[in-house]
Give the backbone structure.
Amino acid sequence: MNKTIIFAIIILMAKFAHAQNEDSVFKDSSKIVDLTEVTVYNSKKVNKATDYFKSNQSATLEDIMSRLPELSLIKRGPYGMEPSIRNLSDGRINVLIDGMKIHGACTDKMDPVTIYIEPSNLKSLEVESGGTGSFSGSSIGGTINMKKDEPLLYSGKTFSGIVQSGFQTAAKSFYEGVQLNYSTKKFGIKGAATYRNSSNYRSGGGKIIPFSQFEKINYSLSLKYKLNERLYYLADYIGDKGYNIGYPALPMDVGFASANIGSMSLSYSDNSKKLYTWNLKVYANSVVHKMDDTKRPNVPMHMDMPGESNTKGFYAEASYRINRHQKIDVRIDASSVFLKADMTMYQPGELPMYMLTWPDNRTNQAGIAAKWNVHVSDKSSFMISGRLDGINSGLVTTESKSQMSIFGYEKKRNDFLKSVSAKAYQKAGKNISIISSLSYSERFPTATELYGFYLFNASENYDYIGNPFLNPEKSIQAELTGNYRFGRSNIKLTGYYIHVLDYITGMVNPALSVMTIGAAGVKRFEQIKFADIIGAEGSLFLNVNKNVDVVSTLKYAYGKDSENNPLVAIAPLKSIVSVRRTFNNFYVQAESEMSAAQNRVNKMAAELPTNGFAIFHLRGEYNFAFFKLNSKAQFGVENILDKNYTEHLDWGKIPRQGRNFYIQLKVAF
Ligand SMILES: [Cu+2]
């Protein structure tokens, strides 16, 4: 298989060899959702695409991601939904904040990294799918990178800020946010805080979903200092605290969760130089997560399950211009992740039982990546990239080693990962462009897959055990995108094929007995020969006239393993269509969200079919001056018909939110 890839790349290189740059065309192929707020009163420069992805001011990052055709969300509760790129999630994808690695501290995946960024702090969301998304970390599914916004430097205003507030009826939820920026010509400091408080929500038809409440506060402080015209220093801190977070599809909730995320960086740019930009960042973060079931009724045996993660790392990125037509991007990075989680079971009348669920383990990684961009002509360009990673991983305390010695975990393991990809852009005619890519990539198994010890999977009703002898997963992928532009409108269609070798999945191990009361059995992570995902995505931005826009997205995927079983958790055909009519200072927008049924389910994972659904929303926005301040009011109703529905990736078939009215106010100064 390696040979095939290398061969294909040689052909590609030969094809473009005597060709001779701007990589701007490649911006087309990785999705960057720019979320920069337009705060100028009555600005005509509103980015309609951005507005479509961010359906309202209080939208969470999860709401935004769910509207991107490449992404789906796995739901265990209304909070902390787990993102997947083309149905690949968790260890198969990178989820980064400004290029930094962060590892969740929950053995049940309640805390994906995306919960730590509030959209009001987000500059852009970058999604790179497949093997071509391995530049900032070895992965087979691609990368989601959340770029946080930076403090403003002086541009006529020393003090500026935004205050916002909102309320939604379905969960009686409040959203409050404030941002303040102080700046001089050399120096800028920005602080932001967001508070969200939500009660149990009401599903379609009126039933209240118990254990769906949450409360969280997110705060951040960043400082930017201009050392000279080309060199900036940036220090950044994000803090996040969550309280009493319910997960209706799981047997446990979160009493308290906290994250501290810090970084310092230097960035340089000078377009006249050959080495025209570089960026150096050092970072550290820690996450604490405390699960318990003390609020749940009828629990046969109470448990406490705390976990923690600590990550340190750095990266350096540079871009070098070889000549007018060629440039090279290089990245070196290293990180070290420590994880620990344990469980204490309180059996009535007996001494508490204690065990490690993520026995203390550390994974060290060092990698180097390079990307060669060649601008052949205005009509065609290509890019070849590669990455190498050395990984060292193992248990680190005598306690964890002695608990796990029965499974043969004595030794640390060393792995070497390789990824390579090629991507080509070709303009065919005045309005059509085609992007094709081919990649080979590898990924390291997760701590759960290697070291997990009786981790209960509530969706399958099985206890899971890790396997320290797993090989890295490998993947070969091909992707073809056609883009048709006409006037200010645009249609884009993508087809892709993902072939995963040594696919890691849970297999029933009858030799092991269950730990969780009521579990159907124990599964151990094993590898099957391969798994395939074939799918398509489409998007349409249609500018009907000056005042009417239509945005529509569509996605479909088909997955099966080497034994021809459907893959678990494959989202069915889904489409969102939204139509907006803009008036002078306001707009109204009607939306439909439609999903087909999913009947291809994995029986071994106890998966059940899901019905299709159609729901409708109506939204509006009004811009006005409030004591001469730029102000905005947003209002709307979601799920107008109060439909009772679930999506296929929702665990436990817990119904989603019913009819929901919302109102948001925002004032900028
Ligand atoms: Cu948890």
Observations:
- The chain is about 5% helix and 55% strand.
